[in-house]
Design a protein that fits this description.
Layout (H helix, E strand, L loop, with lengths): L3 E2 L5 E2 L7 E19 L5 E13 L2 E6 L8 E11 L4 E16 L12 E10 L1 H14 L2
Antiparallel strand pairs: 1-2, 3-4, 3-6, 4-5, 5-8, 6-7, 7-8
Length: 142
């Protein structure tokens, strides 16, 4: 639990500086890897499609099958609608760093094969892209 009290009754503080929206979005993420592709400097990278659960101007939470260590750098292209009536979408680019990783406990309610939830803090994002994410988040919160 992020706000309120934990199981022991201790007050928890929200550390986020930006509002978040918990809804599925889609992203391509580029991870450091020992296989698949090389980046422009010739370093091995892995491109993966991920579901973004928790988007905000400061970062996102994704799900993935493979473990990744904290402090790993990730390049992302995140897609989201700007006009749902006209089915318009945009993509934003960001570089982030893994700030936390949590193994998912499978249960009957959870479907799919993802095994980890990963919190990614944006380190480098164009200000206009950050504003677009914030605008999207604010527009959808009731």
């Amino acid at each position: 639990m992020r706000n309120g009290k934990n199981k022991k009754g201790v007050d928890l503080k929200e550390n986020r500086k930006c509002q978040r929206r918990n809804k599925y979005l889609f992203a391509f993420c580029q991870y450091p890897s020992g296989r698949r592709m090389l980046d422009v400097q010739g370093n091995p990278v892995e491109i993966e499609e991920n579901i973004v659960w928790d988007a905000g101007g400061g970062g996102v939470m994704i799900e993935r099958e493979k473990f990744i260590s904290t402090r790993e750098k990730i390049l992302m292209e995140i897609y989201f609608p700007t006009d749902e009536v006209n089915n318009t979408i945009i993509s934003v680019f960001a570089e982030g760093e893994v700030s936390w990783v949590k193994k998912i406990q499978k249960n009957n309610c959870f479907k799919g094969s993802n095994k980890y939830r990963v919190g990614i803090k944006f380190n480098d994002i164009i200000e206009e892209d950050k504003k677009n994410i914030i605008k999207y988040v604010k527009k959808k919160i009731i």
